[in-house]
Amino acid sequence: MRTEGDAWDITTGVGSTALFVAAARALGGDQEQALAEDPFAEDFLRAAGDEWAALLDGEAPEHPLTATEFGRDFQEFQVARTKYFDDYFRDATAAEVRQVVILAAGLDARAYRLPWPDGTVVYELDRPQVLEFKRNVLADNGDKPRTDRREVPVDLREDWPRALRESGFDPSAPTAWLAEGLLIYLPAAAVEQLFETIESLSAPGSRVAIEQMDPLPEEAAAALAENSGEADAARNEWLGLIYYEPRSEAAGWFTARGWTAERVDVPDYLRAHGRPAPGGSGGAVSNMLSVVTAGRPGRRTSTASPPKPHRHCAFRSLSRAAP
Question: Which residues of 68-90 are buried (b: 16+ CB within 10 A; e: fewer)?
């Protein structure tokens, strides 16, 4: 379970979820007609070794990602989520946004993977151990970022806005923010503070993309908590990292403050892209998940299309937290 002041690296606590998600991207992206691929995900898993390498080699038959319906649905969701946020960044840069901030970046390799326009700066915020692992793995493989990538080694419970500015962030320039795989690990007060901080650092023309989860109904949470094997135990360990308390709904929060914001529910997004919506325990979670994009009105610097509306976690103080 989460505790105030807890710590982690890439293989423990919240940090280990980055490997779990990378594994889902690697496995899901290898499926026929996958919505997105992340070729760097396998590199991270190979470097982590042990169960992660065995999973890739088909030698972990009891792993929750492959042995359960929940895991297979989780793969599908991660790939869809990857496409959604990839498209978000493409839209933002097409509108000449050249400043990107990825909060709790984990093993996000978009700085290495996406075709960034000249002049784009990508800031990645996470704990030093996580950023160091990612940097070393990619450097050992000879991979280089495709734009100006700047690490901001900071725990999101610390004064991360100051660390961000000291790394060169310009609050007067439009920014494309990403909070992917983050909010579920924050208590409600920390989510509120996160939103407030993003808004305070966002110049006109800025955008934000957020993944969120509505509180699970009591019966759904009880069903997910049932242990029937090793795979379910591993799944429940992950569920124990999540805060289930009600928190601000992102689209409504930003809309109330003058941003243009809309959300898309995950099952709807999957169906719209020709993918089956999850069922069973996976469906119980996916039905609570949504992704949100919001844009702050302001003077546009190009004729590119504005952000396309999409339809449809106890951090002490958040100045902030770990995809």
Answer: bebbbbbbbbbbbbbbbbbebbe
Number of CB atoms found within 10 A of residue 225's CB: 12
Q: What is the mean pLDDT of the chain?
A: 83
Over residues 23-37, mean pLDDT: 88
Residue-wise DSSP of 18-48: HHHHHHHHHHHHTSTT-S---TTHHHHHHHH
Strand, helix or coil for residue 64: helix
CB atoms within 10 A of CB 5: 9
- Paired sense of beta strands 121-126 and 99-102, if any: parallel
Angle, alpha carbons 203-81-155 (nearest 5°): 55
Total Cβ atoms within 10 A of residue 24: 24
Q: In the structure encoding, which two tokens stand for residue 248, read together?
A: 């601000």
Dihedrals phi, psi of 263, to nearest 5 degrees: -120, 155
Of residues 79, 78, 82, 106, the one with CA closest to residue 18: 106
The per-residue pLDDT for range 199-209, each reduced to its tens digit, is 999 999 999 99
Quick check: helix, strand or coil at residue 294?
A: strand
321's CB contacts (< 8 A; 6+ apart) are 14, 103, 104, 155, 156, 157, 182, 185, 186, 190, 194, 313, 315
Identify the band that residue 89 occupies on the pLDDT scale cut at 50, 70 and 90. very high
Cα distances (Å, whole numbers) of residue 4 to 220, 247, 248, 262: 26, 18, 21, 32
Q: Which residues touch 96 (CB under 8 Å, ≥6 apart)?
A: 174, 300, 301, 302, 304
As beta bridge partners, residue 224 has none
CA-closest candidate to residue 24, choices 43, 38, 10:
38
For residue 142, which phi and psi values (nearest 5 degrees)?
80, 15
Residue 279 parent element (H or E): none
The SS3 assignment for 153 reads: strand
For residue 221, the model assigns a pLDDT of 60
Q: Which two tokens stand for residue 151?
A: 């690490």
C-alpha to C-alpha distance for 248 and 257, rounded to whole angstroms: 13
